[in-house]
Design goal:
By secondary structure, this protein is mainly alpha-helical. The protein is about 30% helix and about 5% strand. It starts with about 40 loop residues before the first strand and ends with a helix.
């Protein structure tokens, strides 16, 4: 340091962009959407399985049997799915109870 010389300023470092609180991401998983309202229809994509749809869209792997039952006409006795199929889904567990509980508020 040279006497009488102005002190060097530390470089300005900007913090990295921060995601809003509550935002979650999964690498390699495309976001999915379900229609609003009472329609529980899911359009399959490449790489989907009934198990994965049950877990991600309905919330439980136990919903596989329900999905197969609701879509007998589409699946035609098979558990194989193809991209672009429109599958009816059961309601998420507790969804009806939540709506009913909220309606009494």
């Amino acid at each position: 340091m040279i006497p009488g010389a102005p002190a060097a300023q530390a470089p300005v470092v900007n913090p990295p962009a921060v995601m809003p609180v509550g935002t979650q991401t999964q690498v390699g998983v495309a976001p999915t959407t379900r229609p609003a309202g009472n329609e529980n229809v899911y359009t399959t994509k490449s790489g989907d399985t009934l198990w994965r749809i049950a877990v991600i869209q309905v919330g439980s792997h136990e919903a596989v049997e329900q999905i197969m039952e609701l879509n007998r006409d589409v699946l035609k006795g098979s558990n194989r799915i193809k991209p672009g199929m429109k599958l009816k889904l059961p309601a998420r567990p507790g969804a009806a109870g939540t709506a009913q509980a909220n309606s009494s508020l």
